[in-house]
Amino acid sequence: MATIFSADALRKIKADKDAEEANKARTEEAKRAEEEKKTHEAFMAREIHPEAMERVMSAVKKAADRGATHIMVFQFPSTLCKDSGRAINNSDPNWPASLDGFPARAYEFFEKNLKQLGFRLRAEILNYPGGVPGDVGISLHW
User: Fold this and answer.
1) Is the distance from CB of 139 to CB of 72 less than 8 angstroms?
2) Are 132 and 142 in contact (CB under 8 A)?
3) 40, 67, 96, 141: which sits with the fewest CB atoms below 10 Å from its CB?
4) Cα angle value 56/59/84 (rounded, 5°)
5) pLDDT per residue over 27-81, tens digit each?
């Protein structure tokens, strides 16, 4: 004989399933957020590599050999800027002040080592997910 279910029992089965799926989604979101936090902390704590000047000059030479006049040095989410990328998005000449952590240290490296060689640094918003600034691209121009 087949089991007979009441409407209330079926609603409870569905509610339990919905609760299970919601709990799974919360767990996955918490895991994703924790990974994002770890990645953010690692990026922001990153230091300029001791061989940075040699690496930059090697990349610049290879790009120049290809006929290029600039290279992308790095990119990062605009959320890592103090103003979420607004100064960069608005071409504010004081955009370097919005940098923090590793991007700020990279900019200081540029100021100290590359600016006097005639290089220019350019920051731009690379994408606009949901209509807001997404990734920032930092490129070196000559």
Assistant:
1) yes
2) no
3) 67
4) 65
5) 999 999 999 899 889 988 989 999 999 999 999 999 999 999 999 998 999 999 9
Nearest to 40 by CA among 12, 81, 2: 81
**Amino acid sitting at position 80:** L
pLDDT at 2 over 90: no
4: left (phi over 0), alpha (psi -120 to 50) or beta: beta
Structure token pair of residue 62: 């290879």
Distance of CA 106 to CAs 48, 51, 78, 93, 113, Å? 7, 13, 15, 17, 10
CA–CA gap between residue 120 and residue 95 (Å, rounded): 14
